[in-house]
Amino acid sequence: MKKMFKLSLIMLLAFSVVLAGCGKKNEDTSSSSGSEGGAAQSSVKVGLVTDVGGVNDKSFNQSAWEALEALKKDKGIEAQYLQSKSKEDYVPNLNKYVKGKYDLTWGIGFDLGVDMKTVADQNPDAKLAIIDAEVDSPNVHSVTFAENEGAFLVGVVAGSMTKSNKIGFVGGSEIPVIKRFEAGFKAGVAAANPDAKVIINYTGAFDKPDQGKAAAATMYNDGVDIIFHASGATGTGVFNEAIARNKAGQKVWVIGVDKDQSLEFGDEVTLTSMVKGVTTAVDKVTREVIDGTFKGGHETLGLKENGVGLADTSSKNVPADVLKKVDEFKQKIIDGEIKVPEE
């Protein structure tokens, strides 16, 4: 009987070991499986640091994060973001990813430029990239855009379609990238309609929708019928003011920025949008890290590179003859016949 008991106990222990081994094998298989959609799993880790506008700014921070979300599905990369509540957050947020040995750390926005330079120089082996600023460090890939060229085209739209000859521009902070928007927009309006007046208002912030709403209210009260904003999340307030006035029977328009904002705020109020290829740029540079071809340096994307332009949905509200005029100006800019001012 004792022999039978011992034999049964040995067999039971052996069977338990086999089961444990099978269980461990299944766990390992599942942990190395592909990402959502069946894409091959990449080991690349990417961190993104927003400026104070935040990842849901309906503008360029959001465009950048959408690019990384798409790469998570397509390539299986690991991607995370940190939202900066103030400028004092930039260095610690960048350092969290750099010190965490992420393969690439993105900074989104001109305001991060100085701090990214500091972090990059202190960590020469790290790979970093930035949108809307040029950082002169060999381990940073900087992408800027010829916003003035794209803004010129929406200026042509505004100048051609205003009924009051009063047009507004709402900017965030008076930094070079936003001044390029302003300069190009004013030049485009003047090219299409020399009689039109452009009223300028800088709110001083990219994360204050209430200030955008107040700025828009003042402009619309003064007879402005079209406002172009380049103010990040502050622009949400511009749209909200326009939506309220349209519901009350006053026909006013907003020209969106960075991405097709009609998708967020509707065709009833969005005349067109000046889109920037932020999503394309973030996708391109991140893929270079994935395939091992990443290099530091600087590139500027304008009309010639399809880095800026009008939203594909523009024909919903912009007449064909105005779009034809826009195309004519676009070609002249590409050919060098027109030099769009930057300030």
Question: What structural keywords apply?
Answer:
6-stranded parallel β-sheet; 6-stranded mixed β-sheet; alpha/beta; 343 residues; disordered N terminus; 11 helices; single chain; globular
Describe the secondary-structure layout.
Blueprint: H1 2-31, E1 45-49, H2 60-75, E2 78-82, H3 90-99, E3 104-108, H4 113-122, E4 128-131, E5 140-145, H5 147-161, E6 166-171, H6 176-192, E7 197-202, H7 209-221, E8 226-230, H8 235-247, E9 253-258, H9 262-265, E10 270-276, H10 278-290, E11 297-301, E12 308-310, H11 320-335
Parallel strand pairs: 1-2, 1-3, 3-4, 4-5, 5-11, 6-7, 6-8, 8-9, 9-10
Antiparallel strand pairs: 10-12
Helix pairs in contact: 2-10, 3-4, 5-6, 5-11, 7-8
